Amino acid sequence: MSPHTWFDAHDWDTVQRAIYATTPRQVERALGSTRRTLADFQALISPAAQAYLEPMAQLSHQLTQKRFGKTIQLYAPLYLSNECQNICTYCAFSLDNRISRRTLTDEEILREATAVKELGYDHILLVTGEANQTVGVPYLKNAIRLLQPHFAHISLEVQPLDQPEYEELMAEGLNTVLVYQETYHRETYKNHHPKGKKSNFSYRLDTPDRLGKAGIHKMGLGALLGLEDWRTDSFFTAAHLHYLERRYWETRYSISFPRLRPIDLLQNDTITSKSFERCMTDRDLVQLICAYRLFNEEVELSLSTRETPRFRDHVLKLGITSMSAGSKTNPGGYAVAPQSLEQFAISDERSPAQMVDVIRSQGYEPVWKDWDKTLTGA
Amino acid sequence: MSTNIPTQPLVISGKIFASRLFTGTGKFGAAQLMEDALLASGTELVTVALKRIDALNRQDNLLAHLAHPRLNLLPNTSGVRTAKEAVFAAQMAREALETNWLKLEIHPDPKYLLPDPIETLKAADELVKLGFIVLPYVHADPVLCKRLEEVGVAAVMPLGAPIGTNKGLRTIDFLEIIIEQSRIPVVVDAGLGAPSHAAAAMEMGADAVLVNTAIAVSDDPVRMAMAFKLAVEAGRLAYEARLARPSVMAHASSPFTAFLDEL
After folding, report:
1. Is B1 within a domain?
2. How far is B96 from chain A (nearest CA, A)?
3. B55 at interface of A, judged by CB pairs closer than 8 A
4. Could you give phi then psi for residue B60, rounded to 5 degrees?
């Protein structure tokens, strides 16, 4: 079976029409069901379901507590490089943005790691742009080898790789890979990724399959919310998850909710800020988080510092299972070069210590460590 | 409060337990609350996930809250997917926590966390030979439990329902067979969502139960821990006192056997 079969089974326009035509009765049926299907998820992300947001939130809260307890896991992103050969219309690392480029050396990686460790972190997410000459597999392999002794759990958010490359990195201690499709709409995808390897929609779409075949421990999915209609894109994300869970049943899954944030662009020696049409309201995002939880009681849901303190504090108990805090989205941001240009502007600038206080004040326990290298025999 | 209740003590691998309630340490909203609840439960055996502790860090927050003479630690291998990974993790746990007791958990399926019977049997065999006191988490499979008994595990821990679901004794028919056949202690693990579920398991003759989610996630974990303590004691007392079975009703007329009296 071609990996695309699940994707070809759904037509974008048909799905979109069905979502917007959802009736209150369909929402109620989805809410009342105990084993919810993709059709139920479709109903729960519909405009019709907005009237049921409070019961959705209460149910989502209960289900999340049952599975994950009163805990929030904490992780930190560590940007290794902002070099990139792609043009992505929404990203400050885009090839056409004339910013100064930096790739961390071994010594700088370790300095950053020390700073992140001192904040309390034991789970780390490594991030780069896509530049195969400088930050290809050999660079990533070296970085993981350097960091592996210092962290209990290493995740990666970089360009899509081939299956043997993933296997190579997993042998060094890589545990999790995040790869967002950005959008499942082929044409829109093309418009936002006009140049570079990333313009290949199908190669990206098949990445979770390559990860599954490599036997990755955990993978993260998501759509960049704001590029296309978030409801339809989220339906495709959920369908992707549904397909992957059945096919690669030994892998764990997480979903992220990257909403587009303003970026800084350097043009003619002046920095201008580019913002995006706000396609998704706070109310929409709460609906989406709850819909995922009602659809899938076991999937991990992650929320980054893209969101505001007020929003994060309120959704902490609604379905989210992991959060970052005090994040730096520029290479060297923690210790080496705090002033360099960020990939995107974060909204929640509170320190990890402040976030821990917030989590505790809500009766939840912050969890810094929920993995051990010895569990995979490393 | 209940130290004078004359129930038989539980013995596992030569160690005597006055409490038949085993507990978990995950999902609590605060480490102090966990400690208070565990002490209130009267438990003497608490399972700890290797993945949650920092073995090198003597100040580990979780372990600091478990440092009581009556709380014996039962490290678990939650997170491993194969026998090979389990054996390696068990050795690390033994070193880190200085105990050869082990809750063997192998669930390659991260969604429902259901135990892999094949890998579990393989790992149990090897770990027993390595000197571990092995308590395997298994499906309520009577044949598997006998196989595990044969390789020398100290107790079996069949599930009542999928872990964390609070659904109660969904596997009751198989648990009854396991309890009837077993020559080693049977600890009903996973899925017990209410004190009444725990009491029912004990009335059936389970030697102990393990409870985590139902205590940790309740609004008042300390009081819920007390409720489980009482339920487990009540269930055990009832078992030892021999429950009266529901009697077969005598009917006024006996259409099938009346002819015997007619001659």
Report:
1. no
2. 12
3. yes
4. -45, 125
